[in-house]
Amino acid sequence: MEIIVLEKTKNKLIMKIEGEGHTLSNALKEELYNDKSVVAAGYYIKYPQISRPVFTIETSGKDPKKALVDAASRLKKKNKEFLKAFLKEAK
User: Fold this and answer.
1) Domains of the chain with CATH codes
2) Whole-prediction pTM value?
3) Distance of CA 49 to the CA centre of its chain
4) pLDDT of the residue at 19
5) Coil, strand or helix: which one is 74?
């Protein structure tokens, strides 16, 4: 995975996520909306077979990089909880 920052301002971050598709992008988008300072979060993939997601985050005061790091940390925690629950049930 490679992240290419296309634009970074005080309240906006636009980046391209090489090596990923809808799975990670959609999870990040949904988790970002759990942050009250996130005004907009979304991505687009121009050509699904050859393009990579271009992701945009806009905030109302919080550094968008911090919002992204926080969302990724929450996703990591949720994945650990899911794995633990699954392993318990799939004995």
Assistant:
1) 2-89 (3.30.1360.10)
2) 0.85
3) 20
4) 85
5) helix
